[in-house]
Amino acid sequence: MAKGGNVRVTITLECTSCTQNSVDKKSPGISRYTTRKNRRNTPLRLELKKFCPYCYKHTIHGEIKK
């Protein structure tokens, strides 16, 4: 039998370069993706390289708090 508990959680990934640039000047938006991760295998914050439609390039998207 499997042990109970929510091992898989839904997380939000946010573009790191858009959040840094939005402080200096107005940006059209911030790119966000939702995905699921296994808390047991990756206990640290997740960072993936994804396409940002506002920067028009592949950037690092980091996990944010909800």
TrEMBL record:
<keyword id="KW-0689">Ribosomal protein</keyword>
<keyword id="KW-0687">Ribonucleoprotein</keyword>
<dbReference type="InterPro" id="IPR011332">
    <property type="entry name" value="Ribosomal_zn-bd"/>
</dbReference>
<dbReference type="GO" id="GO:0005840">
    <property type="term" value="C:ribosome"/>
</dbReference>
<dbReference type="InterPro" id="IPR001705">
    <property type="entry name" value="Ribosomal_bL33"/>
</dbReference>
<dbReference type="GO" id="GO:0009507">
    <property type="term" value="C:chloroplast"/>
</dbReference>
<dbReference type="GO" id="GO:1990904">
    <property type="term" value="C:ribonucleoprotein complex"/>
</dbReference>
<dbReference type="InterPro" id="IPR038584">
    <property type="entry name" value="Ribosomal_bL33_sf"/>
</dbReference>
<comment type="similarity">
    <text>Belongs to the bacterial ribosomal protein bL33 family.</text>
</comment>
<keyword id="KW-0150">Chloroplast</keyword>
<dbReference type="GO" id="GO:0003735">
    <property type="term" value="F:structural constituent of ribosome"/>
</dbReference>
<protein>
    <recommendedName>
        <fullName>Large ribosomal subunit protein bL33c</fullName>
    </recommendedName>
</protein>
<dbReference type="GO" id="GO:0006412">
    <property type="term" value="P:translation"/>
</dbReference>
<dbReference type="InterPro" id="IPR018264">
    <property type="entry name" value="Ribosomal_bL33_CS"/>
</dbReference>
<keyword id="KW-0934">Plastid</keyword>
<dbReference type="Pfam" id="PF00471">
    <property type="entry name" value="Ribosomal_L33"/>
</dbReference>
